[in-house]
Structure formats: C-alpha cells, structure tokens
Amino acid sequence: MGVLTVRRAAGSDIPAIVAMLADDPLGAARESPDDLTPYAAAYAVIDADPHQLLAVAERDGRVVGTLQLTFLPGLARRGTTRAQIEAVRVASGERGSGLGATLMEWAVEQARDRGCGLVQLTSDSSRTDAHRFYERLGFKASHVGFKLDL
C-alpha cells in the first residue's frame, strides 16, 4: 500500500466523497451521486466556514476516506469548544486496513490542535459495526441523540 495522506478536501474530491457516502445501505437510499450540484453548493459553504473542516484520506492519488469536523464553541463545560465528527466513510476496498482508525486519530489531533475539550460524534443506531469501532477507539456511548427531518 502507498503512503496515506489526510488533507482538507478540494472541490475536485466531491465525486469521490459522494461515492463513498452512497456506498452503504443507508447512503444508497439518501445520496444522489448522479447529480453533484447540491453537493458542490454544500462544499462551497463548508469550505468558506472556518469552523468546518471537510477532510479526505488519499492513497496513491485516490481518495479512500473522508470525514467532516465541525468546531462548536459553547458556554457549557466552562466555555469548552467541541469537535463534532460526522460523515466518516472509508472506501470499500480499504475497510479493515486500519485506515478508519488512522483517519479518526487524525481528527482527534486536529481537535486538540484547535483547543477542543472534547470530541463527539453521532452514528446511526443501525450501524452496530461502526459503534464497536468507535468504542475500540475510546469513544463512549454516553448520550441519546434525536433528529427531526425538516
């Protein structure tokens, strides 16, 4: 395997990112890789926001992983800034290679570098393999999350 690099995503990475988002049962039902227009618009907003970091893992010139970090300043916990990790995906051919752990370690280090006091994430309740993965990395299932589709 070639050298792995984790970096800020570029607009040219959108097709690969969307393909990874769509490459599972949940994503297949909610993503539209044939129409990248809404993804490009969302990327422009994310890339312009200093509290957002959309990242990709690249190996041998191919995007093989992605995640989004959002930095949330707050008053709770004595003004602690939180890092929220979302949309973690690893290309199907790279799963089980340790890439996910490397990507998550990179994200935690980015949070430390930004002075965050904690890192949090959400994971769909049906993703039991992902839950075991996050627990192996030291994350605790400490809260119940709620969503309201609009």
In short:
This protein is α+β, with helices and mostly antiparallel strands.
Number of domains: 1
Predict the CATH topology: Aminopeptidase
Give me the number of helical elements.
6
Q: Output the strand order for the largest sheet.
A: 1-2-3-4-5
Q: Architecture in CATH?
A: 3-Layer(aba) Sandwich
Spans of 5+ residues with little confidence (pLDDT < 50)? Answer: none
Gyration radius (Cα, Å) is: 15 Å
Helical amount: 25-40%
Q: Name the beta content range.
A: 15-25%
Structural class computed from helices and strand pairing: alpha+beta
Shape: globular
- Give the total of beta strands: 5
How is this structure best described in words?
Keywords: Acyltransferase, Transferase. The chain has 150 residues and is α+β, with helices and mostly antiparallel strands. It has one domain (4-136): Gcn5-related N-acetyltransferase (GNAT) (Aminopeptidase, 3-Layer(aba) Sandwich). It is 37% helix and 25% strand. The chain is built from six helices and five strands, in the order E-H-H-H-E-E-H-E-H-E-H. The chain has helices spanning 14-22, 25-30, 37-48, 76-79, 99-113, 128-136; strands at residues 4-8, 52-59, 62-72, 82-90, 118-121. It starts with a strand and ends in a 14-residue tail after the last helix. The relative contact order is 0.15. The model has no long low-confidence stretch (mean pLDDT 93).
Brief descriptors of the model:
single chain, 150 residues, alpha+beta, Aminopeptidase, 6 helices, acyltransferase activity, transferring groups other than amino-acyl groups, GNAT family acetyltransferase
